[in-house]
Amino acid sequence: SPLLSPPGVCVDDPNCPHLNDGDCDDGGPGSAYDFCEYGGDCTDCGPQLPPPNSPDSSYCNNECQHASDGECDDGGEGSHYSVCDFGSDCIDCGERFVEGEEGEEGEEGEE
Asked: Counting Cβ atoms within 10 Å, is residue 87 exposed (0-12), middle (13-18) or buried (19+)?
């Protein structure tokens, strides 16, 4: 699935008010401003490394067509709907982690 292109975070978030303006606006290293979500101004900033204190097994982008609508839509824990790929509604769902991947101590599948 083309959700993420690890190790970098890089999407052009349609909710970023300053996409493609020639200035990096995602608040990451080398950015001029922090108007957009981290990694959400890809054209201007290029891929950003995962944020510090974030294991490599995290998923967080806003490629879901229903991202940033106030409801979590990625089918993960606490989501309202399951209409998007896991980790693709980061603004509404927060960062997602996959149990068993290196860098994350997940709880055994309790439901």
From this structure: buried
The model's pTM is: 0.41
CA distances (Å), origin 84, targets 27, 58, 59, 101? 26, 16, 13, 21
What are the beta bridge partners of residue 82?
A: 74
Q: Which residue blocks in 50-97 are alpha helix, DSSP H?
A: 90-93
What is the residue-averaged pLDDT of the chain?
75
- The residues with which 40 forms a beta bridge, in sequence order, are none
Give strand ranges (E) for 58-97: 58-59, 96-97
